[in-house]
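During the reporting period, we have paired protein sequences with backbone structure tokens. One record among many follows, to show the layout:
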Amino acid sequence: MQTNERGVNDVGGLPGGPVNREEHPETLFEKRVDALVMLLTHPQIGAFKVDALRRAVEMNSPGDYTTLGYYPKWIRAIRRLLVEQSVLSDAEIDARIGKLRERLAKDV
């Protein structure tokens, strides 16, 4: 079956605008997301494969795919896969995020 629909990631031949090629220092967020992917895809843990991460990133809406940065796309995909693989539930993730926000609010 052949389809003419493009995935959000299929940008070949479309105008993309200028590419920023300047190096930037890695942020703590980027390092943590990268480490999380390395841990979750490690054969001893095997929560998901890198191919699944790519698929989950490509599930973003076209608007999110074009406006979110590289690592925010990854963190959304990680959440989606952890729920999909029944490692964690949305409720468990939301509860943990809530606790972290409370802790951060106290520190400010």
Notes: Residues 28-107 form a domain with the Cyclin A; domain 1 fold (CATH 1.10.472.20). The mean pLDDT is 89. The chain is about 55% helix and 0% strand.
